[in-house]
Amino acid sequence: MNPKQPFKWRHFQSEIILLCVRWYLRYPLSYRHLEEMMGERGLLVDHTTVYRWVQAYAPEIEKRCRAYLSQTNDSWGVDETYIKVKGEWKYLYRAVDSNGNTIDFMLSAKRNARAAERFFRKALKACHNRTPRVINVDKNAAYPPSIDELKKSELLPDDCELPQVKYLNNNIEQDHRFIKRLVKPGMGFASFNTARRTLRGYEAMNMIRKGQIQGVEKGDILGQLEFVYQIFGVAA
């Protein structure tokens, strides 16, 4: 994809492409739902075409919105949820702060200390995140050794706390529901790469929806729409 001309050689206008991609990533719709919805508007768009658009532009939305994210706070909640990929369960690691703002996410084939450490390293690198003072997790035995390794590497301060109390993670367990609700209409993913690319779009639209974009408030639907068009250089 040409970063300066992301819609070059596409047969449909950029506004139509972004409309379909936004709706798919924001609402619990299937590709066939969008095919029908476009058909009602006189546009013949095959569901496989919408799928290709989502695969191309979902990661791009997430990549482009990162620079506009508001800073999260230093109280983290970390948990993983199950995502079905090609009939098998994989693991979506997610973190939110105490205000419910998304810190970061990562799809993993494994659920172990190495995967947890990879996720923490990814989250700590994000420019909108603060070094955590406390990380609330559940009883997953993989978390303590991964945190110990990060402290040895001096990526985390020694006084960073790691409470393993399930009820403290209510924030993130509630936040999982939004992502799960979007995954459900597709009944899982056909490949790990398809899941990874689509989930990047789901998470980006979730952050936009929650008001994590600087200057775009939660509930400001038109402002959120204009933001997505803006980052692609498209007039709303």
Automatic annotation (TrEMBL):
Family matches, as InterPro entries: DDE_dom, Integrase_cat-core, IS_Transposase, RNaseH-like_sf, Transpos_IS6
Q: Name one GO molecular function term.
A: DNA binding
Gene Ontology biological-process entries: DNA integration; DNA recombination; transposition
Q: Does the keyword Signal apply?
A: no
Q: Entry's PROSITE patterns?
A: INTEGRASE (PS50994)
Transmembrane regions? none
Q: Does the keyword Transcription apply?
A: no
* Domain Integrase catalytic stretches: 55-226
UniProt keyword list: DNA recombination, DNA-binding, Transposition
A single Pfam family it belongs to is DDE_Tnp_IS240
Q: Which NCBIfam families match?
A: transpos_IS6
Give the protein's recorded name. IS6 family transposase
